[in-house]
Amino acid sequence: MTKSKLLASVAFSVAGALMASQAHAQSAGGNDTEIALLKQQLRLMEQKLEKLEKQTAANTSAAAKANAKADAKADPKVTVASANAAYPVKGTIAPSDVVVTMPNNRPTICTADNQNCIAITSRVHFDVGGYDYHPNSASTVPQRLDSGENVRRARIGVIGKFLEDWNYALIYDFGGASDGFGGTAGVNGAAVGFLPGGAVSGIENAYLSYTGIKPFGGKLAVEGGIMDLPYTLDEASSSNDIPFMERAASGITATNIAAGDFRSTIGTRWYTDTFWAGAYVTGPATGAIHSASSVNPNGTTEQYGTFARVAGQVVSGKDYSLHIGGDAEWLIQPPHNLIANTQTLTLSDRPEVRIDPTTLVSTGAIADVSGAQVYSAEVAGTYGPLFFQGEYFWYNIDRTAFAPLSSLRFQGGYAEAAWVLTGETRLYNPASASYGGIVPANPFSLSGGGWGAWEIAGRYSTIDLNDQVGTAVGVAGGRQTIYTLALNWYANRNVRLMLDFLHGDIAKQLSPTNFTDTGSKFNALAMRTQVAF
Asked: Would you indicate the residue range of the signal peptide (predicted)?
């Protein structure tokens, strides 16, 4: 029975009682006792009515709470709007525990607070090309260079962070199929391992970096493991972003001494938007044989060295910037062959295209090396779509490990410039003190009408590995000069096609005391298909 019906029934009963009482009073002459009795009954009925109303309200509230609990169990996203609500109300849906995104088309999974992330990264550089090679004499080595193809890089791995400030990477490189000579080393006919330079695939990155310290308004990174070290401006720039298929030979020769890719290291760097400073202690590269024994006479002790770099933007604006810097590298302990009791170091590089793995200039194994130093200067800048960069290197090799020989000194450098025909510019990356790549303003699309970005570039590169020529203790490694022209098409931020034409001139003699011409000249045309994210 509802409250309104109950009140009506009570009112009707009271009215009837009053009417009966009135009739009775008239007949009995107005008996006051009966009237008082009726009033008492009315008060009792009012009290019962109040109790009944309270009980009804309590039952309604209990039913509402029971319904709310049942709904909450059925759907955990349902919430009660307020404590006094009679019925459950759906509130805001809680955010997911993870967020999946594709920055730069890189699959990335992060927690909702972006404190923890893991992403898949990959790059493939597939090269094809050919040489027009002309040795200067029958004494020239090699007599030919082979055209063909090379999977220069084929990397895949994961990068990420946890608790915001801990960064890590694990990347394996399956490439370099034509970057070295194959074969195995053996003892008494039994193979014991690959020859150095033969199997060049391996762990390219496996490091941990902490960036939670921010002194003096900058960011400090403390890191260690196997890394691509930011030594030299060219090496600090990603291979996905440089205007040419290969870096200049002078820079590669320097980084191979105690830095470069696949290098074990521990160190730190501090940087702001305009300044960068870093120093690292380095060890051997991955894959280096460093276990000398009677069954492995090619083994050596591990090498170690260090380097420091200071660089930054001295001028920057909306459409222009200027970068300068300086670098120093020290090979403190060269590899030591415990069986042969030798310490050697070789300076060399391929002619800035790696279809054929042959080096055209090389010092050979310099004996009795006790240490080495490399000093260099760097400059780069942008002015709208114009980009320019250059570095120069001075190499010093100490030869006092087992015999007091004079030091050797070599030098080399490069200068390059690039112009983006479609107007894009290269942005500065403060974390590595280098310039990034081109991101097309209008990615290629037949339906959308975009044609990507187009860039032309040129470079002059030289390295001189001759010293004390004419003496028995000199080195005649040769002098290499290469001119490179490049045309690059950036279809989008992940796909790039590159076309390089190289003209090289190698001036070299047979030995420090034999002036027989063993030089050469070559032209090379090579193309790269690049996919990276």
From this structure: 1-25
Please check the confidence at residue 209 and state whether its pLDDT lies above 80: yes
DSSP 201-256: -EEEEEEEEEEEE-GGGSEEEEEEEEE----SHHHHS-TTTSSSSS--HHHHHHHH
* 362: pLDDT strictly greater than 50: yes
Question: pLDDT, tens digit, for every residue of 380-421?
Answer: 999 999 999 999 999 999 999 998 899 999 999 999 999 999
Instruction: For residues 73 and 170, state if they share a domain.
Output: no
Q: Is residue 423 part of a domain?
A: yes
Q: What's the N-to-C CA distance of the chain in angstroms?
A: 73
Other CB atoms within a 10 A radius of the CB of residue 46 amount to: 12
Same domain, 61 and 127: no
Two structure tokens written together for 379: 């400059």
* Whole-number CA gyration radius for the chain: 41
* 369/504 same-domain check: yes
Tokens of 327: 């670098």
E strand or H helix that includes residue 25: helix 3-28
Domain assignment present for 224? yes
Cβ–Cβ contacts within 10 Å for residue 253, how many?
A: 24
Total domains in the fold of the chain: 2
What value does the mean pLDDT take over residues 94-111?
86
Residues facing 141 on adjacent strands: none
pLDDT by residue (tens digit) across 484-529?
A: 999 999 999 999 999 999 999 999 999 999 999 999 999 999 999 9
One-letter identity of residue 444: F
Residue pair 370/407 in contact (Cβ under 8 Å)? The answer is no
pTM above 0.85, yes or no: no
Nearest CA among 462, 521, 450, 531 for reference residue 498: 531
Residues 103 and 14 in one domain: no
Would residue 223 count as lying in a domain?
yes
In the block, which residue shows the tokens 């910037």?
321
Structural domain contains residue 279? yes
Residues 381 and 513 in one domain: yes
Is the bond preceding 142 in cis, omega lying within 30 degrees of 0? yes
pLDDT at 69: 52
217: left (phi over 0), alpha (psi -120 to 50) or beta: left
Q: Measured between alpha carbons, how far is 226 from 208 in angstroms, rounded to an integer?
A: 9
Q: State the residue range of the domain holding 13.
A: 3-78
pLDDT of residue 341: 86
